[in-house]
């Protein structure tokens, strides 16, 4: 099976996020970048399926600046066979729909059987791109999967996804798109030999012209959604530490919850 | 004149509260002459039109079919997109639930229009342009977005943030059956079953009170302390990732960056340190209570009320106190 995993490089989840002075983005100083955690579940699932079937190739794909090659190398180091880096200055400022269009063009160059995305990228927290791509490619999708079974002989798959208070079990024809949720698997770490081997693996760089996309149809000028302002959320200030022994503190807490917060 | 469409999510024949919040929002954004149009899809749902009518809908499209009893991205996406086209909807609102998070982007892609997910604010500026505010970077920043088309195709609303309308409408909504069924035979993804997860009785992402436990509980059996307090309060039970990764609770309990985002009125964190990734899921709770034996635990920096102490002593006392009050009431 040919498996693709779309990955995004994002600031690590423990990063301090400061909006830049003009409110047009974040201050990049001191940030360290990682593969989006949800995309790691996609990488792991792809590797597991390849191992179980005993055949196949896993390709990681990412759109971004030169720095993004680090994230793709990380994927190669954990076992991905090849990586595609779509790097073109014209893509700067593209919105989700445009990123999805570009990914669609890249994915259509091959006939992938399975395409994985993260449930959401932990920077824009949008959770849309995998679903956009499925729609653009005319493929079925299951979003937020926490379990997947490939029925290779039938060329179908069964995926579970969590909803409020229940789990949906969905069977789909392949090819299909899946967006990955935590609990799907435990992503592996790169081993030292893995890191060494990754240096020899193919990391192909494509520009928009390789995808037949005109540069003047992407980027901020073509964004349907634009970010006007990035700001810090209202700060929650530390409240009251309730003093006293355990039973005094509990009585006081109950009083505050009833009288101030009025929660019960 | 512009029409605002609201996807009235229902499960098991009951419209979700967030759908009424979306209706209320649509009503408040609609100007004179605009229509608020609800879309109700499923099976055995006709009893719900009353609620949508008093919740602010002028018109309700209803489509009932056994094959629509289970959610399907493809089938639901087609119905809502077609109705949106027919009504020339300027905006489609729905809850940022498991269903809305799936359906919203589907429709936005189908109609190739701007999408804003999980919004906590939606307003019209002086130029009649919609501005949506959404938390990004796990709630560490707020992004306000707009579209050069002045409106969005689809906006999903974070549950429990937007109010329902305060004065129920007195006029009856017009109910229009939608008979154009999607091509069910062409569906590639089919719902096989819906397994109800054995969990707390109150669903986390919809709860108004949540009691969460973390690594401080030391072992899975001790979750009974958390469950007893939750029971007394009529609350849902949550967990930190440390508790989930230790196997004490399934992932459906996890609150945080790689778990659920919750916005209850009251969140009680017991034996949870307050790591940034945990805060990502709960820092927009209205009131936060922290019970932790470490006075320097970061959770105290964002808690409205904190008790520095042993949760094994404090939580049972709190449970007793709550029970006493409830019995008196
Ligand atoms: C990519 C990524 C995603 C993540 N996603 C999430 C997420 O979604 N949700 C999440 O929660 N975490 C997440 N984490 C993990 C997060 O960083 C923390 O490790 C985790 O939240 C810690 O859980 P905890 O507070 O239960 O445990 P700890 O940090 O170990 O805290 C336990 C607390 O219990 C207190 N305690 C101990 N005994 C007692 C007692 N007897 N009485 C009172 N207090 C006591 C201690 O003082 C301590 O503060 C993520 C991490 C990463 C890297
Ligand atoms: N620039 C990108 N390159 C490749 N994949 C991406 C990119 N941006 C987002 N994705 C994928 O789309 C998923 C959802 O992203 P989002 O809709 O932005 O939350 C991510 O988890 C990735 O799998």
CATH topology of the largest domain in chain B: Rossmann fold
| Low-confidence parts of chain A | none
CATH architectural group of the largest domain in chain A: 3-Layer(aba) Sandwich
Average residue pLDDT of chain B? 95
Order of helices and strands of chain A: EEEHEHEHEHEEEEHEEEH
Could you explain how this protein is built, in words?
The complex is a heterodimer of chains A (264) and B (329). Chain A is α/β, with parallel strands linked by helices. Chain A folds into 2 domains: 2-222, HUPs (Rossmann fold, 3-Layer(aba) Sandwich), CATH 3.40.50.620; 234-264, no CATH class. Chain A is built from 6 helices and 13 strands. A 9-stranded mixed β-sheet of chain A has the order 9-8-7-10-6-1-4-5-11, sandwiched between helices. In chain A, helix 2 (68-78) packs across helix 5 and helix 3 crosses helix 4. Chain A is globular, with a radius of gyration of 22 Å. Chain B is of the alpha/beta class and 329 residues long. Chain B has 2 domains: 3-186, HUPs (Rossmann fold), CATH 3.40.50.620; 204-328, Rossmann fold. Chain B is 27% helix and 28% strand. Chain B is built from 8 helices and 18 strands. Chain B has a 7-stranded parallel β-sheet, sandwiched between helices. In chain B, helix 5 (223-233) links the parallel strand 14 (209-213) and strand 15. The chains are: A alpha/beta (264), B alpha/beta (329). Chains A and B meet through helix 3, helix 4, strand 7, strand 8 and strand 9 of A and helix 3, helix 4, strand 7, strand 9 and strand 10 of B. Residues 214-216, 240-243, 254-259, 271-273, 275, 277-278, 281, 291-294, 297, 310-312 of chain B line the site of flavin-adenine dinucleotide.
């Amino acid at each position: 099976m040919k498996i693709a995993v779309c990955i995004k490089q994002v600031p690590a989840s423990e990063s301090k996020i400061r909006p830049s002075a003009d409110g047009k983005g974040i201050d990049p100083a001191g940030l360290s970048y990682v593969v989006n955690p949800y995309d790691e579940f996609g990488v792991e699932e792809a590797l597991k399926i390849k191992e179980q079937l005993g055949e196949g190739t896993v390709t990681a794909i990412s759109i971004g600046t030169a720095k993004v090659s680090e994230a793709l190398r990380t994927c190669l180091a954990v076992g991905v066979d090849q990586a595609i880096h779509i790097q073109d200055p014209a893509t700067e400022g593209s919105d989700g729909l445009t990123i999805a269009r570009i990914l669609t063009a890249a994915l259509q160059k091959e006939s992938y059987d399975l395409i994985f995305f993260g449930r959401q990228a932990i920077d824009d927290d949008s959770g849309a791109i995998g679903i956009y791509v499925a729609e653009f490619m005319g493929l079925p999708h299951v979003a937020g999967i926490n379990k997947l079974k490939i029925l290779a002989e039938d060329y179908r798959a069964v995926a579970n996804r969590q909803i409020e208070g229940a789990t949906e079990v969905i069977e789909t024809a392949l090819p299909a798109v899946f967006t990955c949720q935590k609990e799907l698997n435990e992503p592996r770490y790169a081993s030292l030999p893995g890191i060494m081997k990754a240096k020899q693996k193919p990391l192909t760089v494509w520009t928009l012209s390789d995808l037949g996309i005109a540069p003047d149809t992407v980027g901020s000028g073509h964004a349907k959604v634009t970010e006007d302002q990035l700001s810090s959320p209202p700060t929650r200030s530390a409240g009251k530490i309730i003093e006293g022994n355990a039973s005094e503190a509990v009585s006081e807490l109950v009083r505050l919850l009833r009288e101030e917060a009025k929660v019960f | 004149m512009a029409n605002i469409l609201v996807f009235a999510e229902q499960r098991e024949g009951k419209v979700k509260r967030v759908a009424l919040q979306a209706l209320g929002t649509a009503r408040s954004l609609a100007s004179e002459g605009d229509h608020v149009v609800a879309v109700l899809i499923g099976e055995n749902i006709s009893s719900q039109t009353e609620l949508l009518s008093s919740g602010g809908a002028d018109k309700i499209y209803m489509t009932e079919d056994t094959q629509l009893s289970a959610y399907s991205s493809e089938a639901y996406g087609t119905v809502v997109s077609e109705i949106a086209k027919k009504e020339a909807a300027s905006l489609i609102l729905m809850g940022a639930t498991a269903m809305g998070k799936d359906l919203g982007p589907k429709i936005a892609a189908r109609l190739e229009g701007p999408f804003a997910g999980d919004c906590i604010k939606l307003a019209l500026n002086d130029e009649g342009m919609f501005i949506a505010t959404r938390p990004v970077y796990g709630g560490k920043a707020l992004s306000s977005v707009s579209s050069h088309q002045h409106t969005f195709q689809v906006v999903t609303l974070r549950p429990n943030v937007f109010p329902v309308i305060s004065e129920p409408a007195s006029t009856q909504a017009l109910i229009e059956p939608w008979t154009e069924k999607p091509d069910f035979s062409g569906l590639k993804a089919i719902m096989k079953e819906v397994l109800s997860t054995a969990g707390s009785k109150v669903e986390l992402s919809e709860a108004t009170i949540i009691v969460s436990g973390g690594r401080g509980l030391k072992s899975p059996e001790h979750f009974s302390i958390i469950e007893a307090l939750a029971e007394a309060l009529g609350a849902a039970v949550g967990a930190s990732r440390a508790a989930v990764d230790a196997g004490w609770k399934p992932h459906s309990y996890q609150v945080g960056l790689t778990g659920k985002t919750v916005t209850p009125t009251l969140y009680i964190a017991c034996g949870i340190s307050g790591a940034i990734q945990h805060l990502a899921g709960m820092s927009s709770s209205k009131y936060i209570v922290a019970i932790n034996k470490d006075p320097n635990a970061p959770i105290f920096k964002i808690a409205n009320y904190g008790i520095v102490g042993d949760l094994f002593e404090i939580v049972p006392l709190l449970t007793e106190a709550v029970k006493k009050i409830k019995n008196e009431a």
